[in-house]
Amino acid sequence: MMENQAGTKCVAYCRYSSYGQNPLSIEQQKHCIVQYAKMMNFTIVKWFTDEAKTGTNAKRDGYIAMLDYIAIHYKELSFVVVDQVDRLHRNVMNYYSFKKDLTLKNMDIRSVKNEVEDTVIGHLTESLAVSVAQYLAEVTGVRAKQRLMETAEKAQHCGGTAPLGYDVRNGKLVINQLEAPAVKEIFLLYNEGYGYKAIAQELNRQGYLTKKKQPFVQNSIRDILFNEKYMGTFIYNKAEAKQKHGESAGKRNTHKNKADEDIIRIENDHPAIISKELFFAVQEKLSAKGSKNTSKDRSYLLRGMIHCKDCGATFTGDTSTSGKSKKKYSYYRCPSKEVGKCSTKKLNRWILDKLVTQLIFAGTFAKKSATKLSSVLNQKIRKDEILNKKLEMLSKNIADQERKLGNLTNTLSVIDNEITRKRILNQMDTVNANMKVLQDERNTMESLLARQYTAEEVQEAIRILPEYIRTHNTILTRRWLQAHVHSIDVDKNNVEIKFS
């Protein structure tokens, strides 16, 4: 072991876990390490900290940053200083692996409260301290799991973020009226044959966000479709925990489930967002062999609405090329025609789409004046439940941020420690930035609700809307058409359009 020298250079590491501790623990550890360093004539050249991180594995940003720093500067360093050895690791294998790596770099560990002598008894004491730390961590983990199971058996939410579409109130899931429509849309779209990517794109187009206020990506759709909570069923202990060599069980493996007898299920525990019928219809599609929801004719507006009167088949959308220019032509066709069982002609896609949308608009708006329509539109916008709830939620979030800023300001006024003051000032900057974003969103929402559309604007919208709908082929456009078109029946000579 190396002897202490004047100004011996060291790095220091502090950590508090997510269970039973708080950020003040970091300041207390730093204070003890500073006093110890003065006594030992150590110079702390770099501090590393991890907040609310378990010591049972090495996946900690501060710890990893310390390893990277040591790898570069180890020739200048002598020790890693901690308040207690369990701050470094609560896993014996990981602790001694770290210690061995330090030894190869001619470094060692120094602990304020677990001073270890370079003797047989000293090494035994160190080993006991680390083993006890692992034992206590495992006991704490078991007790925490037992409490979660007890909570689950009472059908209470067991911590963590509520699923999209829900909030937690008094330990129970309640519907979040702003998020629930996105969940309904996900299930309806998948049931209609759309894949994860198409669903994510449509949700983003409509302005929906995930629970973390981020745009949807296709990976975020799958878990929602499998979640039984959306039909009102409380479920706990369903997913297997991931296990890696040398580490305790960590995150859940949502793609692998436990046996049914190990899963807690309580039906009709909380309000459902999705009906059981729709949920199980989606599960059937998810489990169907080779089901990928990638139909090539999904972009055709009238897909599924056109029927052949001669053979009874439903027309599909298709594309072909013609001539040297390889110009593409899109059309609807009877699938029986290709196998020689039907002689009904193909229908030009663009002509039929345009005809149907124009007829619907003519029937819908012909007898209504633009003045009356603008009045109805403005009333609907002012009374729109989702927009008003969003405005209410934004105002509540702004008030929460203002309270948080006030608390931080009061705390700052009584703190002298420069490190703590700097941390509080950084938190205040973050809160102010969040408030600015929220206030901008609220101003936009208030402007939208206050907007008054004139008769002239509505008249212009009616004029251009049929072409816009035909060319901007969205999921909502298809639903609008399905609401107005009962069926389109085709034979060799006629096309009969029946409206709802």
UniProtKB/TrEMBL annotation:
Could you tell me which InterPro entries the record lists for this protein? DNA_bind_recomb_sf, DNA_bind_recombinase_dom, Resolv_N, Resolvase-like_N_sf, SSR_resolvase, Zn_ribbon_recom_dom
- Pfam families tied to this protein: Recombinase, Resolvase, Zn_ribbon_recom
Keywords, A to Z, come to:
Coiled coil
Q: Which residues form a coiled coil?
A: 384-448
Recombinase domain boundaries: 163-292
Which protein is depicted? Answer: Recombinase domain-containing protein
Annotated organism of origin: Anaerovibrio slackiae
GO molecular function term, any single one: DNA strand exchange activity
The answer to whether the entry has keyword Nucleus is no
